[in-house]
Amino acid sequence: MSSEMMKQGVLVRGFGGFYVAVDDEGTEHILRCKKKFRRMHISPLVGDEIVFIPGEGEEHGWLEDILPRKTECLRPPVANVSLLLVVICPSPEPDLLLVDRLLVRARLQGMKTAIVVNKCDLDPTLAERIRVQYAGAECPVLAASAKQAQGLDALREIMLGESCCCLTGQSGVGKSTLLNALLGLELETGDISEKIQRGKNTTRHAQMLISKQPEGDIRVLDTAGFSLLELDAKMEPEKLRKCYPEFAEHEGACRFTPCMHDREPGCSVTAAAAAGEIDPGRVERYRQLLADVRETWKQRYN
């Protein structure tokens, strides 16, 4: 196949065995995936940078190659995210253990992170409480209200210039509503179930949205919400504490070396939490995750 026929682009969505790619000119192409990827046990992901052969007329084209991924998420299944935006809101009640799991996965892959407190008009104090909890975590906290159009300029500013942003979090926190307000879209949105106080999942498949702004393009993934996330089964327990920037200054200050900061005598992190220098809830959730990682590590060969 002549190299002149090849084009580069990014996968923006998939449906029924077909994939949609956008090239550098902004043109969409419908592609089929070659069988070689199945033999290699590789599945194309939304966000993948690819090489493809465009179709002619009504014929579909062919996905020829997937370029090396910078990052990869399994849930939601997307690739090449550079900025992970974890969205929470007053209702449903924030699952901060899920937030911490997401931040750990992002940090392990080198993604930037931010927490977006949506629906801040329902509880103006929540964003500040979250800022206090995550002080030192190298994760900015932004207050926003899609319905009241609050905080959208600040959110748009941190998304500009990123190769790919991803909004994620529990169902019902308003990810699609935020994207509608940010980018002038009309994505389907849902309500909160009164019975179980969970969101109705309106986004069923990941898709990349490309919005041309006066300051540049914003590329963002709209993904299905979820309430559970497991950490990598191959993760060594010793790596977890390195995903908490607020622990860094305490490394080497504990009585034991290395210290896992899990209630060992003379632990500097425990002392810092007791003194209010590190949020105690953040430390307690770290210990919950550490117990999960240790158990998963023990079972890795079973």
Form type: globular
Q: Provide a count of the helices.
A: 7
Strand percentage lies at 15-25%
> What can be said about the biggest beta sheet?
6 strands, mixed
Distance between the termini: 46 Å
User: In terms of structural class, how would the helical and strand content be classed?
Assistant: alpha/beta
Short summary:
With 302 residues, the protein is α/β, with parallel strands linked by helices. It folds into three domains: 3-66, Nucleic acid-binding proteins (OB fold (Dihydrolipoamide Acetyltransferase, E2P)), CATH 2.40.50.140; 72-222, Rossmann fold; 237-298, Ribonucleotide Reductase Protein R1, domain 1, CATH 1.10.40.50.
Can you put this structure into words, describing what you see?
The protein has seven helices and 13 strands. The protein is α/β, with parallel strands linked by helices and about 300 residues long. The chain has three domains: about 5-65, Nucleic acid-binding proteins (OB fold (Dihydrolipoamide Acetyltransferase, E2P)), CATH 2.40.50.140; about 70-220, Rossmann fold (3-Layer(aba) Sandwich); about 235-300, Ribonucleotide Reductase Protein R1, domain 1 (Orthogonal Bundle), CATH 1.10.40. The strands form three sheets. It has a six-stranded mixed beta sheet with strand order 10-9-8-11-13-12, with helices on both faces. The protein has a five-stranded mixed beta barrel with strand order 1-2-3-5-4. The longest helix is centred in the last third of the chain and has 19 residues, at about 280-300. The radius of gyration is 21 Å and the shape is globular.
